[in-house]
């Protein structure tokens, strides 16, 4: 949809306004295509989903046509839909994905250090890659220390885990080179005092945040469809579990907090009553508090919020850029400032909650809702404006970079 909208804008401009010399200029379509390809490749390669729930069995030969079509379009493609959900979040709120990646990296390192396994094993535990004989994901310290679970995890070679990964050096290298080339173009344009289109500034912000996400998730196996099933049970003797939750599941506000913090209490998610981890699972809250000795939960969340401010700060590069209208200019500036300030306000408010008793949980929830709503509105504005401003770019935006000035010659 975004591509179709951008293509329409491309045809609204005449070739005469875009460029008088094709060798020294670029077309509007070139700008749009470069940005969209960069965004797609960065998000596609950086997003590493957890192991999805088991795919339902294919309908038999005697099944109805509708059941076969439904399986082919939906049920059989659940892993792809699982990944697509994360990609949509990475497009709308990339700071949530980098927060998930950072906390998963912390827990993977903690599991690897605690149980003397590889970093890949640690990530595979965090992402729900090991299940017990009953099909329950083994993702908590209590499960790992039950019976012979740890011994069976260690018996799985790291090479077999890596073999399940669908990522390869070519696809990751292609995305890395495209992102690097795009960043180099943006830097060169600023060095030669050439303006960047608002879409290019937004793409630069996406490329930067997704590069950090990609680095954090680099050791994590990509697009694993099926877990390793161990021959042992991870249910401690004498314990009973209710399916799926012990008290009706989390409230809507708690679900929002789970997407933000990625930490689940037992009443919110019980691995011994489920067959897969949630999409935004990082760890059980108790395990994170035990293992995260170097980076506590507060520091991890602060780092996530600071990345949100960085995302907004990059949009400020277009502060003095020519906009088609005064209203769009001030909308862009206001939205960029909101992206910078809102995460910092949450950090300050969270610090007050920790240091004093003046702020109750109810006040914190109200503050979180207000800041999140304002931040979401600003994100929507900065998703629409990069496309709407394509209708009237300054003439200098179509001048290409003179790369010859950087090439030594006689």
What does this structure look like?
Helix 1 runs antiparallel to helix 3 and helix 5 packs across helix 6. This protein is mostly helical and about 400 residues long. The protein starts with a helix and ends in a 22-residue tail after the last helix. Strands 1-2 form a two-stranded parallel ribbon. A two-stranded parallel sheet has the order 3-4. The N terminus is likely disordered. It is globular, with a radius of gyration of 24 Å. The chain has one domain.
Task: Give the beta-strand count.
Answer: 4
From N to C, what is the helix and strand string? HHHHHHHEHHHHHEHEEHHHH
Largest sheet: 2 strands, parallel
- Indicate the proportion of strand residues: under 5%
Low confidence ranges: 1-18
What is the average per-residue confidence, as pLDDT, rounded to a whole number? Answer: 81
Q: Which value, in Å, is the CA radius of gyration? A: 24 Å
Short description:
With 410 residues, the chain is mainly α. The chain is built from 17 helices and 4 strands. Strands 1-2 form a two-stranded parallel ribbon. Strands 3-4 form a two-stranded parallel sheet.
Give short descriptive properties of this protein.
about 400 residues, mainly alpha, transmembrane, membrane, transmembrane helix
């Amino acid at each position: 949809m975004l591509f179709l909208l951008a293509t329409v804008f491309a045809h609204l401009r005449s070739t005469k306004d875009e460029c008088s010399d094709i060798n020294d200029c670029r077309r509007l379509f070139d700008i749009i295509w470069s940005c969209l390809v960069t965004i797609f490749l960065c998000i596609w390669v950086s997003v590493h989903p957890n192991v999805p729930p088991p795919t339902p069995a294919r309908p038999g030969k005697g099944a109805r046509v509708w059941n076969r079509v439904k399986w082919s379009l939906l049920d059989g493609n659940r892993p792809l839909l699982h990944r697509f959900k994360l990609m949509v979040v990475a497009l709308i709120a990339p700071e949530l994905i980098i927060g998930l990646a950072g906390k998963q990296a912390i827990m993977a390192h903690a599991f690897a250090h605690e149980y003397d396994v590889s970093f890949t094993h640690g990530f595979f535990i965090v992402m729900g890659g090991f299940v017990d004989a009953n099909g329950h994901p083994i993702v908590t310290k209590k499960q790992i220390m039950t019976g012979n679970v740890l011994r069976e995890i260690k018996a799985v070679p790291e090479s077999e885990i890596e073999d399940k990964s669908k990522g390869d050096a070519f696809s990751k290298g292609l995305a890395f080179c495209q992102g690097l080339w795009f960043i180099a173009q943006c830097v060169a344009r600023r060095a030669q005092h050439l303006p960047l289109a608002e879409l290019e500034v937004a793409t630069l912000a996406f490329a930067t945040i997704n590069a950090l996400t990609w680095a954090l998730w680099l050791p994590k196996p990509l697009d694993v469809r099926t877990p390793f099933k161990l021959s042992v049970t991870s249910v401690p003797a004498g314990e009973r579990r209710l399916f799926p939750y012990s008290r009706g599941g989390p409230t809507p506000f708690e679900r929002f907090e789970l997407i933000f913090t990625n930490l689940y209490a037992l009443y919110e998610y019980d691995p011994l009553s489920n067959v897969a981890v949630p999409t935004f699972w990082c760890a059980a809250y108790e395990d994170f508090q035990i293992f995260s000795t170097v980076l506590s939960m507060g520091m991890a969340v602060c780092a996530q919020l600071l990345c949100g401010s960085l995302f907004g700060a990059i949009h400020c590069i277009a502060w003095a850029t020519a906009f088609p209208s005064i209203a769009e200019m001030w909308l862009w500036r206001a939205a960029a400032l909101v992206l910078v300030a809102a995460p910092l306000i949450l950090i300050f408010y969270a610090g007050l909650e920790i240091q004093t008793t003046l702020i109750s949980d109810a006040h914190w929830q109200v503050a979180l809702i207000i800041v999140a709503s304002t931040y979401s509105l600003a994100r929507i504005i900065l998703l629409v404006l990069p496309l709407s401003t394509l209708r009237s770019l300054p003439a200098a935006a179509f001048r290409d970079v003179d790369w010859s000035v950087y090439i030594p010659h006689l």
